[in-house]
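#help-structures

NK: newbie question. if I give both the sequence and a SMILES, will the prediction place the ligand too? trying with NAP
OV: yes, paste both and it writes out the complex. here, I ran yours:
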Amino acid sequence: MTKVAIIGAGPCGLSALRSFELAEKKGEKIPEIVCFEKQEDWGGLWNYSWRTGSDQYGDPIPNSMYRYLWSNGPKECLEFADYSFDEHFGKPIPSFPPREVLYDYIIGRVSKGNLKDKIKFNTRVINTVFKDNKFEVSYQDKVNNKVLTENFDFMIVSSGHFSVPFIPEYPGMKSFPGRIMHSHDFRDAEEFRNKDVIVLGSSYSAEDVALQCNKYGAKSVTIGYRHNPMGFKWPKGMKEVYYLDRLEGKKAIFKDGTEQTADVIILCTGYLHHFPFINESLKLKTHNRLYPPKLYKGVVWQDNHKLFYLGMQDQFHTFNMFDCQAWYARDIIMGKIKMPGDKEISEDINKWVAMEEKLENPDQMIDFQTEYTKELHEMSDYPKIDFELIRKHFKEWEHHKVEDILTYRNKSFSSPVTGSVAPIHHTPWDKAMDDSMKTFLDQPTK
Ligand SMILES: Cc1cc2nc3c(=O)[nH]c(=O)nc-3n(C[C@H](O)[C@H](O)[C@H](O)COP(=O)(O)OP(=O)(O)OC[C@H]3O[C@@H](n4cnc5c(N)ncnc54)[C@H](O)[C@@H]3O)c2cc1C
Ligand SMILES: NC(=O)c1ccc[n+]([C@@H]2O[C@H](COP(=O)([O-])OP(=O)(O)OC[C@H]3O[C@@H](n4cnc5c(N)ncnc54)[C@H](OP(=O)(O)O)[C@@H]3O)[C@@H](O)[C@H]2O)c1
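OV: that's the protein plus ligand as structure tokens.
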């Protein structure tokens, strides 16, 4: 029987499992599937961990999510086509839920059948080679500290790419008398109450970590960008300045001449695509971009069409794009979609990469990833979902952020699956201090 290995049971791995589950429900004969997950439960980054560094087995912690993390995009843009928010919660809920609510939604879709039986938890893939037309996967059972090897016909890599931090060094760090950390290890903004915080970076982590620190009582927050400022209208107590030059004792000195006393430096400097468990010839090598090269349709490894990578793009679209990718990979594995010849594959990859390299602003990037996702959507039986509405929502959301970075999460959007309109949440985001699901769902909505 054909065997498929799935590496990681985060949202992408769960999309893959779900795609096979639905094919089986339609009466199709599916391959044998083994999903390897190095953590003790599923959900990937959405499965919050208090731990940082390494776990009780000495394995690096993949989690980068923190307390008080609210969705940074409208939930409607990531809605599953086969499992709406209305179906899961039994009523429409506001558009920007906190982490626990989204975790509940992700897990709700996969909990009803027997998918958990297909996952080996606490099991870390440590090596993969391709020989004799099979993937030889070596993995460690972390609890019993045993290494085992198994052969597979196909392999789906869904191990995420926001887990291994990129950590640059600036002059003066060695003698800085405070804390220096990466956003990967950020867990609770309360820690920085009454502190002078420096945040380095100009993307989503920098924006959100800086706002969190301000919201939970930091004395000051100074964001140092390198290339382009985020340029939002920051609230009182926050500023954005040009590039850190050096630290002198407790003083942070920026290239625009700004000097700021600092208790803590939080590096929001992004992550590395890191696959220590894959042989060099099969390994995706890329930075965080919208179209990593060598992946046909953003999914199939150009040099070996039995190897698939899910979710390796920088992401506007998330869960439903992961689904479209998973459905597409499933159909290649099950022989329903045939791969074209090498020339066509190469031309298609080059076309998308060339288009990506010309993108200049967020609107164009949203268009690009929407076109990509729509194309994939049309290639499988992934259920109907209105990607044109999602495109519109993303652009509106970008606009709301520019208008007011503190209030964009109070807005309401309509579902691309059911059409229902989200209620406005009972508490504006900048006043909502409790991120529990109970508080989010229980209080009456206006
Ligand atoms: C701080 C932060 C906030 C985010 N917030 C949002 C948001 O609000 N909305 C949104 O849509 N997206 C958000 N994202 C994007 C996020 O990447 C996706 O939502 C999603 O988690 C990606 O799913 P994934 O399955 O690719 O990766 P992950 O969620 O990282 O899951 C990968 C899984 O693979 C496992 N794994 C890794 N290596 C191995 C191995 N060798 N062997 C076995 N298992 C392995 C890991 O343990 C993990 O469970 C956020 C990302 C970060 C870092
Ligand atoms: N739900 C939420 O609220 C939330 C919160 C946090 C993160 N996220 C998600 O997490 C993912 C990762 O976001 P991310 O911001 O961590 O990574 P990212 O988007 O890859 O951005 C990395 C940032 O690091 C900067 N950088 C890199 N090296 C630097 C250096 N030496 N000095 C200064 N800056 C440097 C880059 O700036 P340059 O432009 O100068 O290269 C860029 O701004 C995204 O998908 C995001 O949506 C979501």
